[in-house]
Write a structure and sequence with these properties.
The structure holds 2 protein chains of 2 kinds.
Chain A lengths: L4 H20 L22 H24 L16 H5 L17 H4 L6 E6 L16 H17 L4 E4 L9 H10 L4 E8 L8 E6 L7 H10 L7 H10 L3 H23 L6 E7 L3 H5 L4 E8 L3 H8 L1 H20 L9 H15 L1
Parallel strand pairs in A: 1-2, 1-3, 3-6, 4-5
Antiparallel strand pairs in A: 4-6
Helix pairs in contact in A: 2-13, 5-12, 9-12
Chain B lengths: L14 E7 L4 E6 L4 E5 L2 E4 L2 H7 L4 E2 H6 L4 E4 L2 E2 L2 E2 L4 H17 L7 E8 L1 H6 L1 H9 L4 E6 H9 L3 E8 L4 E7 L8 E4 L3 H15 L7 H11 L10 E6 L2 E6 L1 H9 L2 H12 L4 H8 L2 E4 L8 H8 L8 E3 L6 H12 L2 H6 L1
Parallel strand pairs in B: 1-9, 9-10, 11-16, 16-17
Antiparallel strand pairs in B: 1-2, 2-3, 4-5, 4-6, 7-8, 11-12, 12-13, 14-15
Helix pairs in contact in B: 3-5, 6-13, 7-8, 7-9, 10-12
Classes of the chains: A alpha/beta, B alpha/beta.
């Protein structure tokens, strides 16, 4: 059927109108709510595994805290996840700031070996034809990640670091291209920024992943499979990459960087929204983290399927706050500056309480 | 050309339709009472009580703000097509600027204002709620659209066309195929007019390290003499060296800086067009329009077409009235929009 010019124009008016109604999340003239969260294909996450994971995490962490208290007040190492700490993690220094004592700060790797971090590569998730998660009013993950990355770039440059972005504009990059970019830039750190989308739109959480070759929970592996879509790697190449990952140091440092970022993010966001939940740091086999040879993390800084989060993400003030949080986390990791280094036990208790609400 | 409602018809007597083009460098306004105006997108607040006493104003705009910049906290609220740093000051500057633009078209007392605001494509994605909030205070009802779309509307190029809006902060690309352009129909590059200014400053500093080229002078040189391609005429500017003004030949540097954006424009055009069906590609190739301040750079359309030679024939046209076409397009859209939609919005 062919449309007349007049019909086309009417359709355009309707589109403009609907777009504007979506901005405010109001109803259209037919009373339809101009919203409807549109999850990207394949990105939808199931709540049940999350809840089960959280429950197991709660039990593990609760047990860890109990044991920690029994051991003359020494806090034990745990991540707020369903993953039981490994031998290596248990015998290392406490790494999760949420469980670390104030006088027990670690010496940063850079200081320990007299190494200096010069180049940080920031990876704004998705781009171009890959919008990532899309919120109810049409805000796309790729737009926010790029904007926050640019703000973070400006902030970190003020500290004298060389900051590069894997994409400067709205273009698609495969994970392989992002990894190659980081390698060619001789990155010393790699930070991948993402926005979460969850089937339950009342949830607002922050979480940060670091690579661990042992992987995380099955739920995280499913998430990693989604984030690793279109990686551009063949299986043979992937094996080579696995071989390259010989250094436990990368894994340890990634975990410390993730902890520092997660703590700063959660603390900062909680100042403006008290209902944000700290899902902590977790390990996950994300291809983009595996591919680079330096400490690397993937952080999910907001939940776009949450209407309140999405509304906040529209404001530049909030995006600036997110950039500030990431800056605090990264600089704290690099320079060991006090201030945003560790959560208190109350923070963890609060997170557990909030997480347990999900279970009910 | 879209058919406009008559501003003096009885139904619309008490409504003033306003179209605004909120740009990184310049902002323009056009209204249904046939008034139109523009300002540089600068907002300045007196630094202290002395400045306020001298300037006799709480806030200054545009050229006046630039001229008095030493006495002002000067803010250019948009950068790279979005509200700059997200501080309250910058969001307040957007509010003040929009209020000022509306006042320039002199609405009558008690007249309702229906405003359509065209914003850079990036801002539409990132700042649309902030911009809506900024306008809401001064308009009875409003809508926000992307600048390239407003331009397309004014040109009547709603189908089989591609708009390239070369702004100061971004270069926005928008394919029109008879429907509201979606994310996949649009692209945005950060190499806009500000990028050319930056490149010019670098090139000037390399060639004349002793001379001082201020930000305003660099922009003026670009706007007055900007060109791509060969030309026999020379570009000379008077610049102070150790306190004494002397002529400087900047012909080559101006050309080089202006040409620096051409490859990215050509590549993005090809990348965007190539995504459509061959038949549609053919039609779009003959309907490419350059808009925005950057389209005034002499020879730009020829240079882009030249860069695309190897891909076949492209017809690229620079629009006639780049300063006002976005505001006029937003106004036309505002006037044509069915009343029931306005009421809902």
């Amino acid at each position: 059927m062919k449309y007349s010019r007049k019909d086309r124009r009417q359709e355009l008016f309707r589109d403009v109108y609907e777009e504007n109604m979506r901005i405010t999340g109001r109803k259209d003239s037919r009373g339809r709510l101009m919203s409807g969260f549109r999850p990207r294909a394949g990105r939808k996450r199931l709540l049940l595994p999350r809840v089960i994971g959280a429950l197991v995490g709660v039990l593990v962490l609760f047990g860890a805290l109990r044991i920690g208290k029994d051991m003359n007040g020494l806090d034990s190492v745990a991540e707020t996840s369903s993953v039981v700490p490994s031998f290596e993690e248990s015998f290392g220094n406490p790494t999760d700031p949420g469980l670390r004592r104030a006088d027990d700060r670690e010496v940063p790797l850079a200081n320990l070996f007299g190494l200096s971090v010069k180049t940080i590569v920031i990876d704004p998730g998705h781009g171009g034809r890959q919008p990532g998660a899309v919120g109810a009013t049409g805000l796309a993950e790729k737009t926010v990640t790029l904007d926050v990355a640019r703000r973070l770039q400006r902030r970190l440059e003020d500290h004298g670091y060389r900051i590069l972005l894997t994409r400067e504009d709205d273009t698609a990059r495969t994970l392989r291209e992002r990894v190659r970019f980081a390698r060619e830039a001789k990155a010393d750190l790699f930070i991948s920024i993402h926005i979460n989308a969850l089937p339950v739109d009342s949830l607002s959480v922050v979480e940060t992943f670091h690579y661990s070759p042992r992987g995380g929970s099955s739920e995280i592996e499913r998430l990693a499979a989604i984030e690793n879509e279109d990686s551009g790697y063949s299986i043979g190449e992937w094996r080579q990459v696995m071989h390259r990952l010989g250094s436990a140091m990368k894994s340890q440092e990634s975990r410390r960087l993730a902890s520092s970022i997660q703590t700063a993010l959660y603390r900062n966001i909680r100042q403006v929204r008290s209902d944000v939940v700290d899902w902590g740091t977790r390990r996950g086999p994300f291809m983009v983290l595996l591919g680079v040879d330096v400490p690397a993390v993937l952080t999910e800084i907001a939940v776009i399927s949450n209407r309140s989060d999405e509304a906040r993400l529209y404001t530049s003030t909030y995006r600036e706050r997110l950039a500030l949080s990431l800056e605090t986390g990264i600089v704290t990791y690099l320079e060991g500056s006090p201030g945003a280094d560790s959560s208190t036990e109350q923070d963890v208790a609060y997170a557990l309480k909030e997480t347990s609400k999900l279970v009910r | 050309m879209p058919s406009k409602k008559q501003a003096n018809s009885s139904d619309n007597d008490n409504i003033l339709y306003v179209g605004i083009d909120l740009g990184t460098s310049r902002s323009a306004v056009a209204a249904s009472n046939d008034k139109r105006d523009w300002v540089h997108s600068y907002v300045g607040w007196p630094r202290d009580f002395v400045a306020r006493r001298v300037l006799k104003r709480d806030v200054l705009f545009g050229q006046e703000a630039i001229d008095n910049r030493l006495s002002l906290d000067l803010v250019r609220p948009l950068e790279h097509g979005v509200i700059r740093n997200g501080t309250h000051r910058e969001e307040e500057a957007v509010r003040k600027l929009i209020h000022h633009l509306i006042s320039l078209v002199e609405p009558e007392d008690g007249q309702k204002i229906y405003a359509a605001v065209g914003v850079p494509a990036e801002a539409l994605k990132v700042n649309k709620i902030a911009i809506r909030d900024a306008v809401r205070e001064y308009a009875d009802t409003l809508m926000v659209v992307s600048e390239p779309f407003a331009v397309a509307y004014q040109l009547g190029a709603l189908n089989d066309a591609l708009i390239v809006d070369i702004g100061a902060g971004t270069i926005d690309f928008c394919v029109m195929h008879g429907a509201m352009p979606g994310e996949e129909d649009q692209r945005s590059l950060r190499t806009g007019g500000d990028h050319i200014d930056q490149r010019l400053t670098e090139l000037f500093a390399e060639k004349y390290p002793e001379s001082r080229f201020g930000e305003t002078l660099v922009r003026e040189v670009k706007e007055k003499h900007g060109r791509v391609g060969k030309s026999n005429s020379r570009i000379r500017v008077n610049v102070p060296v150790a306190g004494k003004f002397s002529p400087h030949d900047v012909t080559k540097e101006v050309r080089q800086a202006c040409e620096s954006v051409v490859p990215a424009i050509a590549e993005t055009l090809i990348d965007l067009v190539a995504r459509y069906e061959p038949e549609f590609q053919e039609r779009v190739r003959k309907n490419i329009f350059l808009a925005g301040g950057g389209s005034k750079i002499r020879g730009m359309e020829g240079a882009v077409a030249g860069k695309l030679d190897e891909y076949g024939e492209f017809t690229i046209t620079a629009v006639d009235d780049p300063l006002f076409i976005g505001a006029e397009g937003a106004l036309a859209l505002a006037q044509d929009m069915p009343e029931q939609y306005w009421e809902d919005m």
